[in-house]
Write a structure and sequence with these properties.
globular; Rossmann fold; Tyrosyl-Transfer RNA Synthetase; two-stranded parallel ribbon; mainly alpha; 3-stranded parallel beta sheet; 2 domains; binds tryptophan
């Protein structure tokens, strides 16, 4: 590990299918960040089980997400890529941190309230404890930087509060992490309701483009995307949310500026425009999907990556956990 570099931590849950919003907002940025930070990228399977999962699917999605990270350019030679449940320190630190987190503040978390409403038949303790486990994830690695979506802002605040509380109660132990809230992905709207964020768990899958969608599906979804009355292809999020969202997506997938895209489509119809956006996206996804499939066929390689990842992660995590155990007075042999 290069000591001159700052440490960065992020994770994604292996649930649902990732959308192009997740790709643009998270994984694509990680590829650039891994050059300048000591990066830990996890597959948060322990967070995933706070909502009931089908075991075979969870297993498959975990490996599939690992393959996707690598297919997108996350390089296991440059960063630590691992599965959360493979590193026992997460659960163990979470337990200690639970005694520094208050029931009231957990009950006030927006995501807890939303998920409790959505899964009213299974409001389990893990769902409420989700932010504390997330704090444990981050604090174990003494991460300075944590890139996440805007929906995780409250959870990051909790992680910072818990770190400070512990440091004040004992002595400086944890680095207080900074959240970096990704702008790009957060801006991608649902194709059918562009004022809403494109989500991996939206009710209508027609509004989300999944990284696993084949070309026909991508094109079909873009053809049905809502535009606006009028006929001008102009970036104006206030009045033309649909067209603006499509322009953003096009710009991000082609690396052209929005202004360039506007010029390119000036005087052309919505139909033609939507088809062009669909094709740009589908053409970018095809090689990712191909590489992901190739990797998934080489399970031995993926297992090797995850094994080394878990070993490296454990080394760092155990060091922090040991310090914590000492400070709180756990007897050590
Ligand atoms: N809760 C995050 C999400 O759903 C995933 C996550 C788990 C995470 N642990 C983390 C993100 C630690 C950043 C740091 O997006």
């Amino acid at each position: 590990m290069d000591e001159s570099k700052k440490t960065l931590y992020s994770a994604v849950q292996p649930t649902n299918n990732l959308t192009i919003g997740n790709y643009l907002g998270a994984i694509k940025n990680w590829v650039a960040l891994q050059e300048n930070y000591n990066c830990f990228f996890a597959i948060a399977d322990m967070h995933a089980i706070t909502v009931r999962q089908t075991p075979a699917e969870l297993r498959q999605k975990t490996l599939s997400l690992a393959a996707l990270y690598i297919a997108c350019g996350v390089n296991p030679e440059k960063c630590t890529l691992y599965v959360q449940s493979h590193v026992s320190a997460h659960a163990r630190l979470c337990w200690v941190l639970n005694t520094f987190a208050y029931v009231g503040e957990m009950e006030r978390m927006t995501q807890f309230k939303d998920k409790s409403a959505k899964h009213a038949d299974n409001i389990n303790m893990g769902l409420m404890d989700y932010p504390v486990l997330m704090a444990a994830d981050i604090l174990l690695y003494q991460a300075e930087v944590v890139p996440v979506g805007h929906d995780q802002k409250q959870h990051l605040e909790i992680a910072r509060d818990i770190a400070r509380r512990f440091n004040n109660a004992y002595s400086p132990t944890f680095t207080v992490p900074e959240g970096v809230f990704m702008k790009v992905g957060a801006k991608i709207g649902d194709l059918l309701d562009p004022t809403k964020k494109m989500s991996k768990s939206a009710e209508n899958a027609g509004g989300s483009i999944f990284l696993s969608d084949d070309k026909d599906t991508v094109i079909r979804k873009f053809k049905r995307a809502v535009t606006d009355s009028g006929s001008e292809i102009k970036y104006d999020p206030e009045n033309k949310a649909g067209v603006s969202n499509l322009l953003s997506i096009y710009s991000l997938f082609t690396n052209k500026s929005v202004a360039e895209a506007e010029r390119e489509f000036s005087g052309r119809g919505y139909g033609e425009f939507k088809l062009a956006v669909g094709e740009a996206v589908a053409d970018k996804l095809a090689p990712l999907q191909k590489e992901q499939a190739r990797l998934l066929a080489d399970k031995e390689y993926l297992n090797g990556v995850l094994k080394v990842g878990a070993e490296n992660a454990s080394r760092t995590a155990d060091r922090t956990l040991n310090k914590v155990h000492k400070k709180i007075g756990f007897y050590q042999i």
